[in-house]
Amino acid sequence: MVNQELIDALRAAEAVKFGEFELSHGGTSEYYVDKYVFETDPHCLELIAEAFAERVGNSKLAGVALGAVPLVAATAVETGNPYVIVRKKAKEYGTGNQIEGDFEDGEEVVVLEDIATTGQSAIDAVEALRDAGAVVDRVLVVVDREEGARENLAEHDIELESLLTASELLADRA
């Protein structure tokens, strides 16, 4: 089911841009979904948190730093579920943690992400959480760009669930 209200909000916030864009994995695209636009827009953030809340159950939440931190924080407020933050690598100062926040060995964790292209940052986060003892088999994203993330995650026994796909977001664009 297409979440038209979220599509309309992302478009109204001008989070979807057209032109020539370089993506984080090195490829290029004719469109760009600007996570920093939708993550700093209160209406978009509220709709995303509500949609994620409907899907996470009672699981502990995890957000991939930096992009998914607003998403996981807003979803935690919406659900009352605690969360952890997963860095790309352990920090080299302070506690030296890669994962900030607490969870118990064997606890079920759902990873929240902003955009999935190849899915590599989500895979890295899941692997870090699994190495630390969490049970992770699902990643929820705002937008699946439909460029291989679902298949790449599946190779690691991870299900990708998206609020929107690129096809839905770009359909009937003016």
Written description of the protein model:
This protein is an alpha/beta fold and 174 residues long. It has one domain: 3-Layer(aba) Sandwich (Rossmann fold), CATH 3.40.50.2020. It has helices at residues 4-12, 35-39, 42-56, 69-79, 120-131, 149-154, 166-170; strands at residues 16-22, 28-33, 60-64, 83-86, 99-100, 109-116, 138-144, 159-165. The strands form 2 sheets. The chain has a 6-stranded mixed beta sheet, with helices on both faces. It has a two-stranded antiparallel sheet with strand order 1-2. The longest helix has 15 residues, at 42-56. It is globular, with a radius of gyration of 16 Å.
Question: Any descriptors?
Answer:
alpha/beta, 7 helices, two-stranded antiparallel ribbon, single chain, 174 residues, six-stranded mixed beta sheet, 26% strand, Rossmann fold
CATH class: Alpha Beta
Strand percentage, roughly? 25-35%
Number of helices: 7
Q: Which CATH architecture would you pick?
A: 3-Layer(aba) Sandwich
Say how many strands there are: 8
The secondary-structure class comes to alpha/beta
Question: Compute the gyration radius: what is it?
Answer: 16 Å
The proportion of residues forming helix, as a percent range, comes to: 25-40%
Strand order of the largest sheet: 5-4-3-6-7-8
Uncertain stretches of 5 or more adjacent residues:
none
Average residue-wise pLDDT:
92
Q: Give the biggest beta sheet.
A: 6 strands, mixed
Q: Determine the CATH topology.
A: Rossmann fold
Tally of domains: 1
CA-based shape: globular
- The topology string of helices and strands comes to HEEHHEHEEEHEHEH
User: How many angstroms does the end-to-end distance come to?
Assistant: 21 Å
